[in-house]
Specification:
The chain is mainly beta and 166 residues long. The protein is built from one helix and 16 strands. It has two domains: 82 residues, 2-Layer Sandwich (Glycoprotein, Type 4 Pilin), CATH 3.30.700.30; 76 residues, OB fold (Dihydrolipoamide Acetyltransferase, E2P), CATH 2.40.50.100. Helix content is 4%, strand content 59%. The strands form three sheets. It has an eight-stranded antiparallel beta barrel. A four-stranded antiparallel β-sheet has the order 9-16-14-11, with no helix packed on it. The protein has a four-stranded antiparallel β-sheet with strand order 13-12-10-15, with no helix packed on it. The longest helix has 6 residues.
């Protein structure tokens, strides 16, 4: 099954294939063999390359929240088809409007740019908080901020349009 993991505001492809009672896990270009057991509801114990990881899993409307208990890392995990259907996968072009979408549910902490501001690819646009972690969203390309649809303190949903660059 294919997934998209959102970590630190960035999407990463994940593929999980069950084989011989174990799981093949592909993270980007890295492949691993994983032993997994479910010791209780919403918990998962993994053995990856001799190291043990305990996870908490919370089902959300369109995704899963995964918490690594021993490493305290939070991420959202979407089924790839739902992620694509929600319009979260966008390849920004070099011209025309480019929508900046919320990668996960959260709350806007800070809007770093103003209307009609010129930005370069990688410039900070805003900071949003999700699962008690702050995630900085950056400009996907250079352009001018033509629309801002959010303000500080406002809650946002996955795939919600936050800004438009031209």
């Amino acid at each position: 099954m294919k997934f998209v993991a959102i970590f630190d505001g960035k999407p990463f492809p994940v593929e999980v294939v069950e084989k011989d009672g174990k799981y093949g896990l592909t993270l980007g270009d890295k492949s691993l063999t994983v032993d997994a057991i479910y010791p209780g509801p919403q918990t998962l114990s993994l053995l990856i390359e001799g190291k043990s990881y305990d996870l908490g899993i919370e089902k959300r409307v369109n995704s899963f929240s995964v918490r690594f208990f021993n490493d305290t890392v939070d991420l959202d995990l979407f089924e790839a088809r739902k992620y694509k259907a929600a319009g979260l996968v966008k390849k920004p072009g070099s011209s025309g409007p480019s929508k900046v979408l919320a990668p996960m549910p959260g709350k806007i902490v800070r809007v770093s740019v103003s209307l009609n501001a010129s930005v370069r690819e990688g410039d900070s646009l805003l900071v949003m908080e999700a699962m008690k972690m702050q995630n900085e969203l950056k400009a996907p390309r250079s352009g001018v901020v033509k629309q801002i649809h959010v303000k500080e303190g406002e809650p946002v949903s996955p795939a919600q349009v936050l800004m438009v660059l031209e």
